[in-house]
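Appendix C reproduces, verbatim, an entry submitted by the partner laboratory led by Prof. M.T., so that reviewers can inspect both the input and the predicted structure.
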Amino acid sequence: MEEHAFRCYDTCNPALSPVPPACPSTTARAIVTRPPVPTSRQTGGDCRTRTVCVDAVNACGQKYGGCFADCKPWPLSPPPCPASTSTPRPAAT
């Protein structure tokens, strides 16, 4: 095992900085493995075999959605907003 001597040097003078040792002449080559090519996305087919799940919020902030077959048009419509809302009054003290 080689022993390395560590010395301080003036970082303001690059000429005094240590020089790293040369790489060995028998450097191993890196092995590159390419990822598999993705298969093309299936188009067409039976829309009843695919499921779509939707989470949505209407203009009033009400959540709606669900899961259904991917046959279009999707059976999805936002619920109507209430005609009016009531704000509870604070209790009298």
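The chain is about 0% helix and 15% strand. Additional entries are available on request from the coordinating office.
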